[in-house]
Design brief:
Chains A, B, C, D, E, F, G, H: It comes from Mesobacterium hydrothermale. The structure is a homooctamer. By secondary structure, chain A is α/β, with parallel strands linked by helices. The first copy, chain A, has six helices and five strands. In chain A, α1 runs parallel beside α6. The interface between A and B is large, with 40 and 40 residues.
């Protein structure tokens, strides 16, 4: 049983690498959004031409990125959404809602101080984790039945 | 052509009332989450019994609220999501993602200072509005073909 | 927002009547399986002719009952499944699984001594209740935002 | 025509091994839940942290297991559900209902003394079998057209 | 629980009238194909212009009739398909397959001499009936829980 | 059997009125896009604010109109698409493709000189008509079984 | 673009072999029902035990065969349904209806004397063919763009 | 993350080759309609027999072509639709609508003079491009995160 896992959300720390490294040897395919922040912001105008209005500059980029993120979520069995300490991160919550409506297995990765603010998101998830390691342990258990320790 | 409209998001101002008042005379049915903040937070434990751990206190409430919010979104033709000036509002973005995945017509109501943070959410919407009045004008136009002025 | 609620499971006590009575005044339509035990067991052969083999006797009846139960579940917004103290009640768990796969809001009604045996079923539900009254309070809150007390 | 078969239900006897052994040489991929009973019960708390309340202990585990069981059922062409002689086995009946709602081909494996209690479940199945061998013979016939003997 | 029932198949006897008459007082809406044989055969060319080639004459009519039959089947909770004694009746079997794929509750009405020829169709049905009266009794039981006699 | 009919396409002649008038007395609900050409072109900027770039001016309007057209098509049983003598009319063909993918019954209304250019669109339709009157006759036949003359 | 093609219907002539032979070199995977008539009739009782009543004998077999035929149709891009000169062949028409409802591309293979009786089935198809060779030529054209001759 | 891309629309220039060449080294599978204009027009009658009436000549061909185009669109993650300078190109707009209704990521390739006529089509797309090169750059960015230059 191979698993396809999409890693959504925060792009400022190396949590994706920690999960991918930890999951080595497991039959998992990982996908992610483009995590190069500047490229992600400017992809629309870089390819399709400049926009004087920042609103449409952002729109063009968000739509190009959506080609990748929708494919990533639609192909996934499991969607992991990481909420970091800073920023609004509405795209992370949007991805979580999108994945939930498609019936994907949702794993949230966040610290306890956000528990109350994320309670609706958490309630749609099958696991709320506190570290990349816990995500890895879930994937390992799901695929092999082995628990840590 | 009657419209079913779900009003999601910020619960601290009277934007819902403004839209509902403005839309009087139009063939629209409005639904909303429970907007009594205390009731919404405590509904789970008030009905199903107290929890010593705040995490499960929140979970019980979020799940009971989900009965209403999922029904509201699934029944809707149009989902309006309002992002206010404050708070994380991840449940609003979650609802937007949920609605988008179900193919609902999405209208976002937010101020320009959030444009960049909401660019992925906006890109999934059919309109980005700045006031309840603009939402009303869209509903009026969609139902009657009449423009303001 | 009217709610359509299907009441599945145990047929030996008056829990359905308690819920229906308690919900008077709320905009709820209730549906149930046929709760006349003898009729439910024999409907197949009574209408379509006797079977010497009990296996096919049961099959004919279960298929006729399925016309009603599938319609009831498919039309429902909320499926309440009651597990009683006795019997295998596999049809109740089957209904819960069927409703879960269709994305219905699931409410389980059962006593704590069955918590462990029902953990997978409970984990698919939005509420685990201990009395018909709690079910009524959830429906009231979902429809009106009012909490008990 | 390769077949993907999910083996749900009773975990106390070696029926899964009998089917997998018997089906050697056939183009079948088998998946199952985690059948290590202790691991299955404790996976939630072992990975995500202890819970003082057994109800939430069970919930955490059931949700982690659901990542695997839902994937297993959703990927399957055929879902075999085995009901043993003992225990409530509500998760088995839940899986059967879930699979039926998704339109999977359902094969039930159970002894005749449970026929009446399982009549609704059986009525949703394409075959009711009495031994792992019969399941193997069905898979062989479906894939090769060859009958036993 | 109102039922929407589509009556498909044989158009040479009054079985539809018998069912509709028998079901008086029950909360059932009946729909049927056009049962005027000449109109059904010629509707395409009568409205859209003559065709010299009988193949396209038939095609035009079959497509116009499909507007009604697809709507009828898609709206139905229960599809009753009657196979008469004569003719190929492939459109009846086609409707049965169409309804089965949509997950409709299927009731077949046919005489025992066709049992073997209809075994695949019957196997997709929830009831195989021998008279319009049995169909009526099923509808009555499904809606009221009352058995005949 | 009431029918919901969406009238898409050309907005320069009174073909919609002819169909609606002709269908008086039939159980049909008609919906259409906004047919006020100026309003349809400018609705986006009139409500949401001017755009210096015509491309985004058009985009804003097209998205607001999509709220109505998608609702109209999704609610419809039958989608009639009229291609006039002039203009590109790509939105009409887009609506036809959208309706076809949703499995709607499609009726095309066009003159023979466009037959070859419309052959892929026609091939997805259940009727190709030459006059509003033929559309009316189809609706009448579908609802009443009566043919003209 | 590989194609998955299901060959349904008549089992008394070698039309399947003709198509499979003719399609050699094309990127097509073919699937079929079990075409050993005796095995197909008796598979249920041969595996699951004898039935004194021919009705249930047939039912058991039809349900086992359905595991294969449903998988075959659901996996297919193209469903070819062959109607022979003799017999009722209601299972062929049932398969055609099932495939049509799932949106499969349908090719019918039949002789002109059945045109009128098959008009509803033909009207749901993308091609009506008269020989296995024509089916092969369609598959070749669809995959390579090459026409015969 | 491999991408499946369908290239729909104009067949008179080498835009498909430009995209396919430009995308070399990327993990993309491309599919297209048959672009041999004569073969595409005549495939129906060439395989299935001549038709005296051009309308049915066209119909037969359009239906055979639909086997390929529907498969191509349904399998695609991304549908690129090219509108050329000339002709009605209603099949291109039809494909765009079909793809939009299936939730495919849509990329339009057209010149600015068609912007107004294509505004509804563009509004359903995630990118409006002016050259095959821009399409290639989008695919490269989506798959690798790399921007041009």
């Amino acid at each position: 049983m191979p698993l396809n896992v999409y890693l959504s959300g925060e792009i400022h720390t190396d949590w994706r690498e920690q999960i991918i490294d930890g999951a080595q040897g497991l039959d998992v395919t990982f996908n992610s959004p483009v995590t190069d922040h500047a490229a992600s912001d400017d992809c629309g105008v870089a390819i399709l031409g400049a926009e004087p209005d920042k609103f449409w500059h952002d729109r063009k980029g968000a739509m190009v990125n959506a080609i990748r993120t929708r494919k990533g979520i639609e192909d996934a069995d499991v969607v992991v959404v990481r909420f970091g300490e800073k920023y609004k991160q509405w795209n992370a919550a949007f991805d979580a809602g999108f994945a939930a409506a498609l019936g994907k297995s949702l794993i949230i990765l966040q610290q306890p101080d956000h528990d109350h603010a994320l309670k609706e998101v958490d309630a749609a998830a099958l696991a709320v984790t506190r570290s990349p390691d816990q995500v890895v342990e879930i994937l390992r258990y799901v695929l092999t039945g082995k628990l840590p320790g």
